[in-house]
Amino acid sequence: MLTLHHLNNSRSQRILWLLEELGVEYKIEFYQRDSKTNLAPDSLRAVHPLGRSPVLTTPHGAIAESGAIVEYLVRHHATDAFSVPQDPEALQQYWFWLHFAEGSLMPPLVANLVLEKARQKGSKPFFIKPITNKLIDGILNAYYGPNLAQSLRYVESYLSKNTWFAGDAPSGADVQMIFPLESLVASGRAKDFTAIQGYVKRVHAREAYKAALEKGGEYAYA
């Protein structure tokens, strides 16, 4: 039996979607973020030393990291309709988007969110605030902002010509890409990217995704 250790408002929601798409029998162990720190509870460390979600308990042990979990599930439980693409060009796109999601898209996205939250929170004493805000703006404008904008333009261009990220059907690449894209849409950062918005709506309309939402509970990005 597979067990998904599921944290509210986290990347583990996309693993729920994949499990539902594959029709795999599984259990869910629920965890809640700390109301003050927004971090995962210490109890997750008993499952995996990193104490982060998602973690999937399998007959072969506990496995962490979304990409690794996606690859494990697709390798062991793939169906004809949700598997690794066989077409060489689609397979190359599959590999790229599977790793682009966390390797290129998420780092500047998270950095932007953290730095902007730090700016809103302000500094003490008050006369330091203009200095810290200027520093934050400098970092965002010089690096994280342009990187995120470039990635979004690239994704938008690709989705304007393709329904899914790797071939004519959804795959593990879509599972990886949905989390950053739906968080961008939910936060309003994708308001000028119609192809990204349409993609997120397509995923959210799938019956397996709806079932995953029903089972997973609170999820701010849907």
From TrEMBL:
Q: Which reaction does it catalyse?
A: RX + glutathione = an S-substituted glutathione + a halide anion + H(+)
The signal sequence is none
Q: What's this protein's family per the entry?
A: Belongs to the GST superfamily.
Keywords linked to the UniProt accession: Transferase
Q: Does the keyword section mention NADP?
A: no
Question: Residue ranges of the GST N-terminal domain?
Answer: 1-81
- For this protein, the Enzyme Commission number is 2.5.1.18
Provide one Gene Ontology cellular component.
Answer: cytoplasm
Q: Which Gene3D superfamilies match?
A: 1.20.1050.10, Glutaredoxin
- Where the record annotates domain GST C-terminal, the positions are 87-222
Q: Name the chain's protein.
A: glutathione transferase
Q: Which PROSITE patterns match?
A: GST_CTER, GST_NTER
A single GO molecular-function term is:
glutathione transferase activity
* Pfam families with a match to the protein in the record: GST_C, GST_N
The enzyme class is: transferase
Q: Which InterPro entries match?
A: Glutathione-S-Trfase_C-like, Glutathione-S-Trfase_C_sf, Glutathione_S-Trfase, Glutathione_S-Trfase_N, GST_C, Thioredoxin-like_sf
